[in-house]
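Recall the central idea of this unit: under ordinary conditions, the amino acid sequence of a chain determines the structure it adopts. In this exercise we apply that idea directly, starting from the sequence alone.
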Amino acid sequence: MNSLSLFAVAATLAGAAIATQSGLNSQLAVLLKNPLIATTIAFSFSALFTLTALLAFTKSYPQADDIKVIPTYLWFSGSFFSAFAVAMFFYLAPKMGIGSMMSYALSGQIVVAIISSHFGWFDLPLKPITALKLLGVAAMIGGILLINWQN
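Accordingly, the structure predicted from this sequence is:
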């Protein structure tokens, strides 16, 4: 199996983890009657798990000079979008169902990813939008409509 195949498997597992955590944490949100409390709990434990992994597996850390050059917005902007997305998942999953919610979420992710790659946003490698990619997006939207047809 080549490295691209391993990356594809890892990305698929990450996607499955997102759907699973959305389902579990939306249950927590329903039981707590507040998706923001559930989001806070989820991020608190995520920080604990991440800190544990960081301490266990990181061999070197950034130096002060490395940290000084990081633009201010990068310290909080990704976290803002992450908190927004996770809170919306916890709020929407019990209302829409995990399949419908994830299908719409995936479409948003793919559209933004294709546009971001086309323009090289976020220092991503440039990957132009092609007719084949547009056909793929159209097929995905068709698939999402089919998944949600009777909902």
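The chain has one domain: 3-147.
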